[in-house]
Amino acid sequence: MIPISPADVEACVERLRDLIRIPSVNPPDGGVDVAAGRDPRGGETAVATHCAEELTAAGIAAEVIEAAPGRGSCFARLPATVADPEPPLVLLSHVDVVPVDAESWTHDPFGGELVDGVIWGRGAIDMKDMLAMELGVLLALHRSGAERRRDVILAAVADEEAGGEFGALHWVRTRPDLFADGAGRPAAAALNEVGGYPIHLGGRRFYAIQVAEKGILWTRITASGTPGHGSMPHADNPTVKLARAVTRLAEARQPMRLTPVVEAFLRGMGMDAVADAVARGAEDELAAILDAGLPDPVMRRSLDAMLRDTVTPTILRSGKKMNVIPGSGDGEIDVRTLPDTDQDAFLAQLQAIAGDEVTLSAVMAMPPVEAPADAPIVDLMHAALRRADPEGTPLPMMITPGTDAKALALLGIPTYGFAPLLLDPDTPFLSLFHAHDERVPASALAFGLPVLADVVGRFVIAR
Ligand SMILES: [Zn+2]
Q1: In the chain, what are the helix, strand and coil shares in percent, each to the nearest 5?
Q2: Is 149 found in the same domain as 38?
């Protein structure tokens, strides 16, 4: 076991506050505005350096490496102490955060303020909280002096919020050794963000252990036409073609489908009626069940997106001047696919829906991620959660956004979303991601830190 004391929890809270106070906004060249008057350039390296300094001071070897100037990641390793060790465990996190609209915040988004037991600021849940807990677990493991049967690697990487080209993807491609042991064996597992939080439903508490992520199929849409004067309209107008096509794409709801993880998730929560309705393709029935039982619109959107491929037009660019019909235009569409969707075939299907006056092409395709839900480390997560909260029920879950798990999947490393937090039913966890007033109660960390330590300890410490 890795002992966690009240002082460790307090240190974790203060660590998170310190991390929030370092604006590590991505994109870092978005100017000082994105960090509410503070210059975010080099913020990722500053966070990575802050972590490395705390680890080094405690006697743990840590390094900061940059994929580009200012785009720093921190890597640290506690090596196995036994002969013939098992493959490593990675504690994965990202050091960057998304920009803020400071005027819309109740408290300074980079102040790390602790108000009535709640820590406010950008990164409080995405994901400097998990970074603070992972550091806390690594430090406590080191201090315990326990024998380790595998390396524990801390990887706090840059650029997750923009796809990882300067972070996880870069390091996976150029330095796979960072995620492997001395014999070159890739890690047995990685623990990462999002999952581990409680879902409150019908007076019960469920913990979502994230074993899967939807695939990404970012798609460009282009249209061309005949330029001309805005005073003389004609039919060959790319602005209108784009508008028509994205409307068709957004309004064509994709059919529902039950994937194994989502089915286990629904049935585990007692939502058999939902699972059955989805299996039958009964949209109206599903809507009626959700109307009656799931009033929270964000939970509902999240659930709906677990059941189908989604197509979300997000950017349109066409024309530069009020009185000029442009010759071309383009846009971007955020497409997310379920685990068994053939992405090429789906893109062809979307092209057919959009029609032949536009052209669709994939700009980034990342397959979905699925880690085994019956792995020993998942059993440890279940057990740790049950010990910490005997009334809670752990469940497997698929998230609809993507994380750095997709990068580690390229090395064959199964990555689990497991950032345990105990939150009350009034804390809208999923709604806080990238939102104004991002925050986390200190009590959530007081719950999460020992749970994370429990899992890591049992997975790593030699018996
Ligand atoms: Zn994140």
Answers
A1: 35, 25, 40
A2: yes
